[in-house]
Design brief:
alpha/beta, Nucleotidyltransferase, domain 5, 5-stranded mixed beta sheet, 13 strands, binds zinc ion, Glucokinase
Length: 313
C-alpha cells in the first residue's frame, strides 16, 4: 500500500496530512473546527479533498477524541464534540469515496510513536498523552490493543484517589485530575496563593494575578527557574510516575512513552516521573525496569498514527 491520509480533530483545528509508509508527512491542510457535529464531518471531507490533490490515496484514518467502537466506525461517545453513537466512518465515506477507519486519538498517537517515534524497536509499549486531560494507548506484541469493545487504554479515568476530586466524566479521583495540564494549572494556583514570594517570575508572565496563570506561563517560568512553576511540574510528575508503576503491574511493557504538551518540557518533567516510577514500582529492586521515554513526534503523532492504522486496513 502506498499513501494514506491521517486526520487529527483538534478543539480549534482539523488537520489532514498525506503520509507515506515511512511515516513522513508529504502534505498537510488545516481547517477550523466547526461547532456542530455535521459541520465537523463536512470539514473533515473538505480537508481530505484539499490535501489529497495530486496524490494517489488509498485510505483515510481519523483520530477522534472519545470512545470508538471495535469496528473502528462509530464514535460511541465524545466528551468535547456532541457525538453520541456517531457513524463517523459511513458519513465521511459517503462524502469522499475512500475507505475510512476511525481510531481513538490517543490510540492513534500511541501507534505513531510506537512505529515511527520513541517506541521504535520495542514490542510492548504503553503510551500516555498528557494534554488538557490524560489519554493512553496499549501496544503489546506489536499490536494495538483496543479491547473487546474498542475502548481499552482510557487510563485517564482510572480512579487513583477514592472520593478524590470530581472529574468531568462524572466519577471522582480520576488519574487525569492529578496528572494533566489542568492539574498543573491547579497546582500552580495553589502554590502561588500559599507562597506568592516564590512565584514572582510566574506572576510576571501572566496578567499579574494568580488566577490569570495559565499552562504556557508555568512552562516558561519553570525554564527560568521559578520555584512554584518547577514544584508544580514535580507534583504532576509524582502522580504520573506513580500511575506508570501501576501500569507496569498490569502490562509489564519494555517502554513507557510520555507525550502531549507536558513532554515538551523534557527532563524537567521526565526525570521526576522516572523517580516517582522507581519509587512506586513493586519489587523494583528485583526486577528489570521499563524505560520512561519522551515522545518524539510531538503534535503529529496522532495524524501519522491514524494514517498508518488506515494503511493496515
Ligand atoms: Zn474521570
Amino acid at each position: 500500500m502506498g499513501l494514506t491520509i491521517g486526520v487529527d480533530i483538534g478543539g480549534t483545528k482539523i488537520a489532514a496530512g498525506v503520509v507515506d509508509e515511512e511515516g513522513s508527512i508529504l502534505a498537510t491542510c488545516k481547517v477550523p473546527t466547526p461547532q456542530t457535529p455535521e459541520g465537523v464531518i463536512d470539514a473533515i471531507a473538505e480537508a481530505v479533498r484539499t490535501v489529497s490533490a495530486g496524490y494517489d490515496i488509498e485510505a483515510v484514518g481519523i483520530g477522534a477524541a472519545g470512545y470508538v467502537d471495535d469496528k473502528r466506525a462509530t464514535v460511541l461517545f465524545a466528551p468535547n464534540i456532541n457525538w453520541r453513537h456517531e457513524a463517523l466512518k459511513d458519513k465521511v465515506e459517503q462524502r469522499i469515496s475512500l475507505p475510512v477507519v476511525v481510531e481513538n486519538d490517543a490510540n492513534a498517537a500511541a501507534w505513531g510513536e510506537y512505529k515511527f517515534g520513541a517506541g521504535k524497536g520495542h514490542e510492548d509499549v504503553i503510551c500516555i498523552t498528557i494534554g488538557t486531560g490524560l489519554g493512553g494507548g496499549v501496544i503489546i506484541g506489536n499490536k494495538l490493543r483496543r479491547g473487546r469493545f474498542g475502548v481499552a487504554g482510557e487510563f485517564g479515568h482510572i480512579r487513583v484517589v477514592p472520593d478524590g476530586l470530581l472529574c468531568g466524566c462524572g466519577s471522582q479521583g480520576c488519574w487525569e485530575q492529578y496528572a494533566s495540564g489542568r492539574a498543573l494549572v491547579r497546582y500552580a494556583h495553589q502554590r502561588a496563593y500559599a507562597t506568592p514570594e516564590n512565584a514572582e517570575i510566574l506572576l510576571s508572565l501572566g496578567d499579574g494575578t494568580i488566577d490569570g496563570i495559565q499552562g504556557r506561563h508555568i512552562s516558561a517560568a519553570a525554564r527560568r527557574g521559578d520555584p512554584v512553576a518547577i514544584d508544580s511540574f514535580r507534583e504532576l510528575a509524582r502522580w504520573a510516575g506513580a500511575g506508570l508503576a501501576d501500569l507496569a503491574s498490569l502490562f509489564d511493557p519494555s517502554a513507557f512513552i510520555v507525550g502531549g504538551g507536558v513532554s515538551d518540557e523534557g527532563d524537567l518533567v521526565l526525570d521526576p516521573i522516572r523517580k516517582s516510577f522507581r519509587r512506586w514500582l513493586v519489587g523494583g529492586q528485583w526486577r528489570p525496569h521499563a524505560q520512561v521515554l519522551a515522545a518524539r513526534l510531538g503534535g503529529e503523532a496522532g495524524l501519522v498514527g491514524a494514517a498508518d492504522l488506515a494503511r493496515q486496513g
